[in-house]
């Protein structure tokens, strides 16, 4: 499969499908929120809403030029380009790599450091049983059809949707019923079963693109990259490249809880690569086969989802797009404070609200425009049955509203699934809020002779188990043995049979109990870093008025790939750069030296294009009094200041401790050079 | 395959094999430097050298306790532990993840920022042709044998070596000839071909461990994890998880050069995961299947390997272990300055020397002890034929001298290999140092009629090619067509035949030529981050005198996982932590709040164990005058200072801008509390 640069962004689906990183376990498909909502009265309206928002933005107009900039300045290129490239795999060049590193550093500061989260670093190669438990082996699939002659593979929902668009375009104005029918089908393309999909393909005459050949019966294709560990048979079964980093946290829950002194709540976080082996990727940088996720798993007592720092974010205002507004005739977001949203019950609980607010602040810090960011709540039928509430941070770019962060209250689903698979208890002890309670405790009187006779050497393990039953387990065993003669139990790799006569009776006593072992709930903010990066780049891009050749990326200084460009005016000044390079290195300020002979205007322009926020020009006066000019990218205004001061001023600017206005007020303005 | 925690470090091979990240292409095996050296007169001496160094260290004595600490405090655990674990896969817990992030941040600063390197972020999934070109598909293998009955797999060299050890141990003192023979074989175990290995297995009666069954004929097992992209057939051939990050840089060379304005020298860097699908991993954290590499590819004009910043490192002194000293009777390292080492020709060139010095400084900054770090030069027969010179940074830990960084001058091998595979020119234009030259240029006179008649529509591509031949190519074509009637040439996907009569003659003229297109050489420092992390942890570990329960990790503050612990003395002080938490967050200083009821001594001890360098104690006096005590980990000395000052002082300490002695001199000492 070859790949050309020109195809990088050739696809512009009207709706970006939801981030599949949030998909896990029970929902049958990576959800495509507004399309899959059969309860929505008029899916077309929603379609229009999105299209409208897109068309109104400057972004779409600029996309062609923006695309060109991304490749020309090596923000991104197809991976293995000199070998023809591979669809869905992209490499980040120097500017994008630096911006991504800055975003991740900011993420670490904003979430991990600020919340004292426990960051871990787990492996990507994952054995099958883990992903059977999580639901990925069974259900992380897309429906695939093949060209019956060429065997080319297609995503069934994509080519059905393409066909429907063609049919809709060919309709006469009076065929309103037919329009409604086609739109309804279009809204559900990725919810169909194999059989339903096959029917739709036949009904609407879908054929293989390009060849026009017939298509095979749709079959689910698992989206995980498969591999195997060691020589055949060493590690039995397949292994996979992880589809998300979250499972690495869940399987380490016991050690994490212990590290946290056994106390809830706490959060663990992970940054790393994840994989999705797309059938036929088409949405450029927004739908790739290898990507970076940053995920948080915040473990809480399901009975108490308050958050100690909630007050600190209660006044944060977000563009909320809750369920009822999505279902209303006029589909508008509402500006609301997190405090009110939780108070009104719009957002399920404080912890979920707290993270929505923190995500909001994080994205603004990355350079997302407030009016191009909204939080959309999942509709009831979008959510997995176990989820309490889910919100997506959607960022507007030229492809439409794109889900970039999912914030989900997943209840106790994940830990429960791994407990079921491993028989390991993944619980935490939580004290009763209302103090200790008197509880009638039943403990079995063991007939050790009988156990020993029946089990021999294995008796000890079972005896130990029976002696340490907690209340719930004891009550259940007592009840079970009233009805049955034996009860099986699995300890480690062995299954034991508890026979009725192993237990001669039950002691009953009243005990003071201070709390209970519970399976924690989990609230999961999950960040698609590549999508955030792409959206931030697109939103930052603009062209200077009256000069369409001069593109600017207005990235926040903290996120910008390089902080300052160093521009000696001529050959004589080229010899003066040494002390500046040393100074900037000493202050850890990244710089780009541009000592080419190009005009100063052209060199400013090159710096603007990759988002460098400041420029130091070394000119004739520098030779005389060691002063330089400092230029700000967006306003192009300049001041003159001394060599001694420039590193300190830059440090403050880069860390957003002072604003450019402060610098303008303090130092003499100079007129920009051509 | 199950895994127990106890096995984490159960293997202690006397010599750690060389980092295979440096292996690429032509050398037949991941090299095992001193063992494979048949030119060494007495391999045993070398063995003793290493063993001696290991035995002399305090580290081995402490290893059991150190291992326990690593697992108890969740620095590391086997991946998927609750599912039984997988050999060769480990997860890093919170302290190790934070230390690793700090090491990588420091790496970015020390190399990328300081050298203005071009960092990229390429994908891990790699299609086969790329790794055929690099040599990994053909030669990145270990010899494997199978138990003929159980089919269990083993690394042939490992079990042969084990057998030799048993045989050596059983020798009588007088059997010196036999000893010499067994030692010679032992020194070469990983250099044998399949046939030789089979002979050795038969000769020395090697059988399958545990079962004693016979063994299969040895076969090469490729060490890359295999996968495939998309549904079968979409992307033809296998794909692999990259065995190193370097190839991602080489395939992007053209774009990187362009990004650098077409100028040499420049360096590109990448940090990322790499994989090695071991047959049967046995060396704990030093030999894993998934690991993080940080690699630099510094591209240079092969004719000019000087380095502009060489003077800045010329006085850096390293423990050098060059070839001649390894081959000498007394195998000792020598302390030498980088300047002298290059001047004497011990190190091949300035750029290589510059990087060796920078690696030295980097490792010391990570906390490696200077006397436990050496730079070992590869012996002539260890190096690939194309390499100009290679040095390994070896760090001493309880397993012996462990290769953690490879610094190799790889000449133009990698770019040439990809050019051969893709027919894409991966060259840079380099100006002649001695100014422009007069060159006699031959250009072909094309018979366009004949070309058109013969090739039809395809004529244009060939005409264009022939009109733009560079000097070398033109001279070669002219010579070839004197001997042959036609010469084939591949342009893009097509192969053309240049017939003699396409060219009616040759124009000859003298031109001024300013330079030539050359294939750059590459100097590659390649860092095994996990090995550095492990070695630093082990070297930092010690026990307080007279109190073996109190372990300390003396990590440099910049590398420490958490910078300060916050210790309120009692319940009343627990209510005073708020402002400290806010202050530390504001200054981005990571902290760990320990408000458990444990004694202050116990809490200090817990902090010492994970290497937290400083501790703030909030005590009775804090309530009165807002002062706190600040304690330093290694000396356990304490001072008292004001709340307002503590964040600023900590910031300076953490960035190593002031020393603890400075703090002791400025603030009043207080006696440590029990």
UniProtKB/TrEMBL annotation, chains A, B:
Identification of the protein by name:
glycine--tRNA ligase
Q: What is its main location?
A: cytoplasm
Named from the GO MF annotations, one term is:
ATP binding
Q: Which UniProt keywords apply?
A: Aminoacyl-tRNA synthetase, ATP-binding, Cytoplasm, Ligase, Nucleotide-binding, Protein biosynthesis
Q: Which domain of life is it from?
A: Eukaryota
User: PANTHER family attached here?
Assistant: GLYCINE--TRNA LIGASE (PTHR10745:SF0), GLYCYL-TRNA SYNTHETASE/DNA POLYMERASE SUBUNIT GAMMA-2 (PTHR10745)
Report the EC code(s) recorded for this entry.
Answer: 6.1.1.14
Q: Where is the Aminoacyl-transfer RNA synthetases class-II family profile domain?
A: 177-568
Which family does this protein fall into?
A: Belongs to the class-II aminoacyl-tRNA synthetase family.
GO cellular component, alphabetical, reads:
mitochondrion
What is the annotated quaternary arrangement, including any partners?
Homodimer.
- Which GO biological-process labels does this protein carry? mitochondrial glycyl-tRNA aminoacylation
The species is: Planoprotostelium fungivorum
The answer to whether keyword Glycoprotein applies is no
Taxonomy of origin reads: Eukaryota, Amoebozoa, Evosea, Variosea, Cavosteliida
Q: Tell me where it resides.
A: Cytoplasm
Keyword check for ATP-binding, yes or no: yes
């Amino acid at each position: 499969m070859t790949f050309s640069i020109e195809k990088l962004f050739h696809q512009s689906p009207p709706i970006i499908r939801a981030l599949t990183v949030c998909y896990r376990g029970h929902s049958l498909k990576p959800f495509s929120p507004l399309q899959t909502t059969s309860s929505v009265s008029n899916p077309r309206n929603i379609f229009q809403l999105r299209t409208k928002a897109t068309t109104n933005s400057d972004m779409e107009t600029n996309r062609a030029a923006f695309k060109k900039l991304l490749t020309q300045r090596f923000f991104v290129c197809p991976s293995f380009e000199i070998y023809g490239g591979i669809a869905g795999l992209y490499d980040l060049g120097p500017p994008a790599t630096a911006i991504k590193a800055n975003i991740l550093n900011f993420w670490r500061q904003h979430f991990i450091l600020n919340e004292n989260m426990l960051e871990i670093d787990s492996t990507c190669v994952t054995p099958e049983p883990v992903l059977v438990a999580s639901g990925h082996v069974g259900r992380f699939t897309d429906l695939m059809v093949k060209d019956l002659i060429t065997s080319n593979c297609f995503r069934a929902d994509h080519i059905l949707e393409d066909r429907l668009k063609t049919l809709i375009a060919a309709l006469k104005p009076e065929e309103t019923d037919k329009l409604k029918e086609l739109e309804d089908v279009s809204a559900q393309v990725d919810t169909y079963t194999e059989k339903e999909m096959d029917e739709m393909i036949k009904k609407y005459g879908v054929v293989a693109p390009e060849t026009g050949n017939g298509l095979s019966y749709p079959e689910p294709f698992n989206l995980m990259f498969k591999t195997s560990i060691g020589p055949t048979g060493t590690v039995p079964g397949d292994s996979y490249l992880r589809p998300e980093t979250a499972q690495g946290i869940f399987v380490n829950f016991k050690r994490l809880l212990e590290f946290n002194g056994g106390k809830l709540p706490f959060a663990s976080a992970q940054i790393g690569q994840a994989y999705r082996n797309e059938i036929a990727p088409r949405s450029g940088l927004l739908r790739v086969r290898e990507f970076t996720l940053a995920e948080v798993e915040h473990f809480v007592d399901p009975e108490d989802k308050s958050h100690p720092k909630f007050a600190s974010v209660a006044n944060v205002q977000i563009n909320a797009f809750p369920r009822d507004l999505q279902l209303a005739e006029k589909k508008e977001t509402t500006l609301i404070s997190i405090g009110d949203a939780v108070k009104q019950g719009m957002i399920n609980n404080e912890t979920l609200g707290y993270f929505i607010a923190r995500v909001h602040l994080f994205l603004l810090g990355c350079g997302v425009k407030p009016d191009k960011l909204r939080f959309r709540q999942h509709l009831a039928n979008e959510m997995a049955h176990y989820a309490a509430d889910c919100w997506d941070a959607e960022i507007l770019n030229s492809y439409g509203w794109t889900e970039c962060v999912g914030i989900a209250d997943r209840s106790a689903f994940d830990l429960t699934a791994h407990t079921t698979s491993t028989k390991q208890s993944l619980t935490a002890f939580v004290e009763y809020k209302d103090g200790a309670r008197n509880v009638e405790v039943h403990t079995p009187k063991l007939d050790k002779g009988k156990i020993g006779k029946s089990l021999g050497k294995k008796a000890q393990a079972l005896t130990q188990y029976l002696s340490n039953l907690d209340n719930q387990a004891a009550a259940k065993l007592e009840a079970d043995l009233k009805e049955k003669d034996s009860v099986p139990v699995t300890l480690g790799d062995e299954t034991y049979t508890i026979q009725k006569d192993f237990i001669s009776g039950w002691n009953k006593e009243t005990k003071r109990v201070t709390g209970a072992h519970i399976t924690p709930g989990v609230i999961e903010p999950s960040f698609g870093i590549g999508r955030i990066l792409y959206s931030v780049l697109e939103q930052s891009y603009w062209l200077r008025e009256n000069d369409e050749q001069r593109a600017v990326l207005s990235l926040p200084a903290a996120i910008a790939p390089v902080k300052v460009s160093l521009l000696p005016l001529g050959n004589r000044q080229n010899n003066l750069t040494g002390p500046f390079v040393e100074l900037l290195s000493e202050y850890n300020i990244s710089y780009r030296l541009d000592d080419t002979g190009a005009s100063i205007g052209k060199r400013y322009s090159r710096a603007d294009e990759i988002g460098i926020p400041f420029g130091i020009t070394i000119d004739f006066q520098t030779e005389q009094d060691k002063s330089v000019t400092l230029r700000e990218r967006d306003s192009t205004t300049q001041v003159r200041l001394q060599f001694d001061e420039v590193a300190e001023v830059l440090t403050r600017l880069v860390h957003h401790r002072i604003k450019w206005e402060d610098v303008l007020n303090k130092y003499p303005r100079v007129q920009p050079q051509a």
